[in-house]
Write a structure and sequence with these properties.
Elements: H1 2-15, H2 23-32, H3 40-62, H4 64-67, H5 81-88
Length: 138
């Protein structure tokens, strides 16, 4: 009797379709960013990460007046912070024990310099751009 009950429960679980939260928004995001997954399990895992990132973005944007900017979902929406770091960020780490002040000699005092510099007006920096994959890889 117990084995029949277990079989029925397993059959019900196997036949149960996964219900995604915000399915229209999820499908639209996948279409916009050309996302497809190898299996239903992988899609479910990616969907859960996407939901977590969506929740983070919504929480941030609810307080955007504090931060001074808003966030939006991009093509990295289905990867976690850890995955993003391992895939796209540099493996180089700064040696905090070095004392770099020995390389810089100052012949003037701090008061001889302006309190701030807007490098945009000097043409030293440009607008933010999508630097694509592995821009900083070592």
């Amino acid at each position: 009797m117990l084995s029949v009950l277990v079989c029925c429960v397993l059959l019900a679980v196997v036949r149960c379709e996964v219900q995604y939260q915000h399915p229209e928004e999820w499908d639209l995001w996948k279409t916009e960013h050309g996302k497809s997954y190898q299996s239903q399990r992988e899609e479910l895992e990616r969907h859960l990460v996407w939901l977590s990132n969506r929740e983070y973005i919504n929480a941030h944007n609810a307080n955007s007046d504090i931060f001074g900017f808003t966030l939006s979902m991009n093509h990295f929406g289905d990867i976690s912070d850890t995955e993003f770091e391992s895939l796209y960020l540099s493996k180089w780490t700064h040696n905090k024990t070095n004392n770099y002040t020995k390389y810089f000699k100052s012949s003037s005092s701090v008061s001889d310099h302006p309190s701030s510099i807007d490098w945009r007006t000097k043409g030293a920096v440009s607008d933010i751009k999508n630097q694509v994959l592995f821009c900083c890889s070592v």
